[in-house]
C-alpha cells in the first residue's frame, strides 16, 4: 500500500473499524468527575484509578465541597491505590478550588461553549493539568475535536510510523489530528487503546494476528525498529 501518512491513517482507521466495530460518543456523566478521574489515572492502570476514584467518592459521600475543603492527608488516604498520591491529592484540591472560584459551584458545563483551543488553554491552567488530561476531558465529556494520546496510542503510533520513535504524546496528537476527520477522533482513540491492550502490547506484540501489518514500520523491521 502507499505509505504516505494520510493513506496510512485511513488504512488504520478502516482496519480497526473492521476489527472492533463502530463506536459512537456518549456523555460520560459529570465533567468534574471526568477531570478528577483523569488526574487519578496518571501513571497508573485504569483499574487502580477506578478503585481510587470510587474510594474517594465513598469516603466523601460524593460531595465535591467536602473534598475541596478536606485535609490533604484525608484525600491521600483515599486515593492510595492510584499511586503518586502526594502529587495527586493537591492537584485534586487545586482543581476544585479553581472551579469553585470561577463559578461558585462545581460544574464544568460552561467549557462546552468554548472552542478546543480555549478549552485546552483553560483546563491546562489548572495546577498539574497537562495537555493530555485536558484533551481527555474535552473529548470524553464534551465530544470536542481533540485527540488525547495515552501510552498505548503513543506506542502504536511510533510503531506504525505515524510518529517518530521519540515523539512525546503532544507531538503524537499533532501527528494524528490533521490525518483524521474530527468526528472520528473518539472512535479512533477507543480503537487504538483497545488494540494496544489486546494486540500491539508493549512487550511481545502479537504482530502475526495484527490487521495493521501492511501499514506498520515495526512489522516490516521485525525488531530492527528502536523504541
What does this structure look like?
This protein has 227 residues and is an all-alpha fold. It contains twelve helices and no strands. The longest helix has 19 residues, at 85-103. It is globular and about 55 Å long. The mean pLDDT is 93.
Calculate Rg over CA atoms: 19 Å
Could you say which overall geometry the principal axes of the C-alpha atoms support? globular
Per DSSP, what share of the residues sits in E-state strands of 2 or more residues?
Answer: under 5%
Question: Can you write the helix and strand succession as a string?
Answer: HHHHHHHHHHHH
Average residue-wise pLDDT = 93
Report on the biggest sheet.
none
Estimated structural class:
mainly alpha
Runs in which pLDDT lies below 50 for 5 or more consecutive residues are none
End-to-end distance, in Å? Answer: 24 Å
| Count of beta strands | 0
**What count of helical segments does DSSP give?**
12
User: What is the helix fraction of residues, given as a range?
Assistant: 55-70%
Secondary structure elements and pairings:
Blueprint: H1 5-20, H2 31-41, H3 46-59, H4 64-68, H5 72-79, H6 85-103, H7 116-123, H8 131-142, H9 151-160, H10 169-176, H11 185-198, H12 217-221
Task: Give a quick summary of the entry.
This protein is mainly alpha-helical and 227 residues long. Helix content is 57%, strand content 0%.
Question: Tags for this entry?
Answer:
227 residues; mainly alpha
